[in-house]
Amino acid sequence: MTKKRKLITFDWAIKRLLRSKANFGILEGFLTELLKEDITILDVLESESNKDYKLDKFNRVDLKVRNSKQEIIIIEIQYDREYDYLQRIFYGVSKTAIEHLEENASYSGITKVISINILYFDLGSGTDYIYKGTTRFVGLHNNDLLELNTKQKQLFKKDSVESLYPEYYLIKINRFNDITKDTLDEWIYFLKNEEIKPDFTAKGLKEAEEKFSIMKLPEDEQKAYEHYQDDLHYQASLFESSFGDGYYEGEVIGIEKGIGIGREQGVEIGREQMTKNIAFNLAKEGTTLEIIAKVTGLSQSDIKQILSDLDHQART
């Protein structure tokens, strides 16, 4: 039996390796398999991952590149659950499109943005593991699809209305069942298992197998990678503990109050208390208000009030 080769994770590769032009072939391979067209990367653009964040441990890794069609592709890896994630990627795409519109340019100069999101939590209630979102205009009466006319095709150098607007890809890694049916599945398998099987033929994977070998990293890079992995495990435990404690405490309070006011109201009170307890537990671990807001869905002002109230209750 062939021994599994130990490879670094894709998020670490985005942080350290894939920003180098020498490694563009790996990323081009992944994008080619996903987008079903040959992708050539011209350069890496400034993105949030290019900056040094103290809260790097709350892992949201992103890479922004420009391809040969002058489209901007945002690749983001997200581990921690965010209830407003769909709105956040919409904001990120909109912001990117506006930032790259030259001053005094016409709207025809708006850059096409492709948002690729590799998620290690279950977003929404769908059962598939890859979703694509686009914009189309459909007639309410005739059910026909709005198309570009000849002059618009010449102006935009596009064939459809849909191609003018952003594209969104959601890859829900945990939904993948490890059965590879095509070359894109081979990439998904690698993203989930950090393993590339000998018979895989997807573009970019063989190069990834060579470049992502942990043993071939310099010693200082190996130590940095080990520290990064330890940090992710710690953060996973922190969130699990915070959610677990908050859920249990909220459930108990909901049951107790539900005895007197009815089950449904009691459950709702329990949920509210659970959210408050989660916020409090995360705050005790030093989590910022911004992160707590993303996790709980509460506003920062509400969180401050909750922390103040709970702290007051603890002292009285």
In short:
This protein is α/β, with parallel strands linked by helices and 316 residues long. 47% of the residues lie in helices and 12% in strands. It folds into two domains: 10-217, no CATH class; 220-315.
N-C termini distance: 64 Å
Shape: globular
Give, in order, the helices and strands: HHEEEHEEHEHHHHHH
Mean pLDDT: 78
Give the helix/strand class: alpha/beta
The main sheet orders its strands as 1-2-3-4-6-5
Give the count of helical stretches.
10
Helix content: 40-55%
Number of strands: 6
Identify the notable features of this structure and list them briefly.
six-stranded mixed β-sheet, alpha/beta
SSE layout and pairing:
Layout: H1 10-16, H2 24-35, E1 41-45, E2 60-67, E3 72-78, H3 85-99, E4 113-119, E5 130-133, H4 150-156, E6 167-172, H5 183-193, H6 205-211, H7 219-261, H8 263-284, H9 289-296, H10 300-315
Helix pairs in contact: 2-6, 7-8, 8-9, 8-10
